[in-house]
């Protein structure tokens, strides 16, 4: 009985550390189970075919049709350059090619495991490695061989090569394990957040997004932590001991916009576009609680996710299932998801689904139109372009979307860029800092 009482008192983070054994376990060498959505409907893609993007790499970089629209909230589309890293510098090019080459064996292992470790999967894994290595070798000799080259293009090329050899979602089983472990402790986290004052809660939410962004299978440093079995402990440490000021720290400006100062209370944003990043803790324990806070304040929230899988990034097809599970334990999320059409047929038994409790502010999901860890806002899905027309806040989260690309982008609306830096060279070049430094960059509307 005493042991039972002790277990009941442990924090959500301690529970997550216990659940972490599911995350750091070896990749299963068997076909993964279904990640079906339990009967809940998901946003349907208006285009299931793929096209070649002639404005970037001309080898058939994959985008879902339609992706011809420029993101309408760019301050100056003609001056917009998504890539932050300048690969015309040969030393920079050589460094990032080395990073991608060193990550390749681990990626092949995960891709083969995702297909059950069969002989056929191993053959395709070897073929993928040879093909991608050949592309890197050619680009090293002739960087302009496929058109203008940026780091985002290289990362997208890697994803295309995976799909070319029928590795549709190499991280599927890993994502499922991470989502399940994170969802198991989400109710306790939300309870803790609700016990905090408004100002403390906002800071805790931003800290949570930054700390959870460490769960990134695209970072060599984080992959090493996974293999050492320490990433859960690193998360707990960063979550508990995150000290300000961060390397880039505009939180106070963001807080004043959200909460006001003195007796002056600002109007809430009308609609926020949250560009989410990784599966698991990143989206479940980081971005979803932030979305919930915005909903609580009367802001419509649109979760913007990849159309196609890339590393362990969450996709638009996977998000509704996560929202549905979270909504079972949170009325704010449930009512907003119902209003946004994410939950249908009164899916949560035992919760009051009456009209008087329906939310006036919806929670929605749209696909961004790409299948890369980065995003080029010159080409987004028509759904995202339409959703952006009513938005007055953008949150770009993660290294790919907020640092590798779009760190210098300016927008017509308020923009918040959040990321934990998981590459030492990027930290030195971009923010004059170190690995695991945090970026909280807030820019009012241009």
Automatic annotation (TrEMBL):
Q: Which GO terms describe its cellular component?
A: cytosol; nucleus
Q: Which residues form a coiled coil?
A: none
Damage-control phosphatase ARMT1-like metal-binding domain location: 122-430
InterPro entries attached to this UniProt entry: ARMT-1-like_metal-bd_sf (IPR036075), ARMT1-like_metal-bd (IPR002791), At2g17340_3_helix_bundle (IPR035073), Type_II_PanK (IPR004567)
- What does this protein need as cofactor? Ni(2+); Mn(2+)
- UniProt keyword list: Hydrolase, Manganese, Metal-binding, Nickel
**Gene Ontology terms, MF aspect:** ATP binding; hydrolase activity; metal ion binding; pantothenate kinase activity
Would the keyword Metal-binding turn up in this protein's UniProt record? yes
Is Manganese one of the keywords UniProt gives this record? yes
Entry's Gene Ontology BP terms: coenzyme A biosynthetic process
Q: What is this protein called?
A: Damage-control phosphatase ARMT1-like metal-binding domain-containing protein
Specify the species. Answer: Trema orientale
């Amino acid at each position: 009985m005493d042991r039972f009482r002790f277990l009941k008192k442990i924090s959500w983070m301690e529970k997550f550390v216990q659940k972490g054994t599911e995350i750091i376990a070896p990749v299963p060498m068997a076909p993964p189970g279904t990640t079906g959505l339990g009967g809940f409907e998901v946003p349907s893609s208006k285009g299931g075919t793929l096209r070649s993007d002639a404005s970037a790499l001309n080898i058939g970089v994959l985008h879902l049709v339609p992706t011809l629209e420029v993101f309408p909230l760019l301050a100056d589309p003609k001056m917009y350059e998504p890539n932050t890293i300048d690969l015309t510098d040969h030393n920079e090019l050589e460094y990032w090619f080395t990073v991608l080459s060193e990550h390749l064996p681990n990626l092949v292992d995960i891709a083969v495991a995702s297909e059950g470790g069969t002989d056929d999967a191993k053959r395709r894994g070897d073929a993928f490695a040879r093909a991608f290595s050949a592309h890197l070798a050619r680009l090293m000799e002739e960087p302009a061989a496929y058109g203008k080259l940026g780091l985002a293009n290289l990362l997208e090329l890697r994803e295309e090569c995976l799909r070319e050899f029928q590795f549709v979602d190499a991280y599927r089983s890993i994502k499922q394990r991470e989502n399940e472990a994170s969802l198991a402790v989400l109710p306790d986290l939300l309870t803790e957040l609700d016990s905090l004052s408004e100002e403390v809660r906002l800071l805790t939410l931003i800290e949570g997004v930054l700390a959870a962004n460490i769960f990134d299978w695209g970072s060599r440093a984080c992959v090493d932590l996974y293999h050492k079995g320490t990433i859960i402990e690193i998360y707990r440490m960063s979550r508990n001991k995150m000290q300000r000021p961060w390397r880039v720290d505009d939180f106070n400006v963001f807080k004043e916009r959200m909460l006001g100062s003195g007796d002056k209370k600002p109007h809430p944003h009308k609609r926020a576009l949250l560009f989410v990043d990784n599966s698991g803790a990143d989206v479940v324990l980081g971005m979803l609680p932030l979305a919930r806070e915005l909903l609580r304040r009367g802001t419509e929230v649109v979760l913007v996710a990849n159309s196609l899988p890339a590393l362990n990034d969450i996709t638009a097809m996977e998000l509704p299932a996560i929202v549905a599970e979270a909504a079972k334990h949170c009325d704010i999320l449930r009512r907003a998801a119902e209003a946004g059409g994410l939950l249908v047929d009164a899916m949560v038994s035992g919760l009051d689904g009456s009209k008087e409790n329906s939310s006036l502010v919806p929670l929605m999901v749209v696909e961004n139109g790409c299948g890369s860890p980065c995003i080029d806002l010159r080409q987004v899905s028509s759904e995202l372009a339409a959703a952006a027309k009513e938005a007055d806040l953008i949150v770009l989260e993660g290294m790919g979307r907020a640092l590798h690309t779009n760190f210098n982008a300016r927008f017509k609306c308020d923009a918040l860029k959040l990321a934990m830096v998981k590459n030492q060279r990027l930290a030195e070049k971009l923010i004059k800092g170190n690995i695991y430094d945090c970026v909280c960059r807030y820019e009012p509307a241009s």
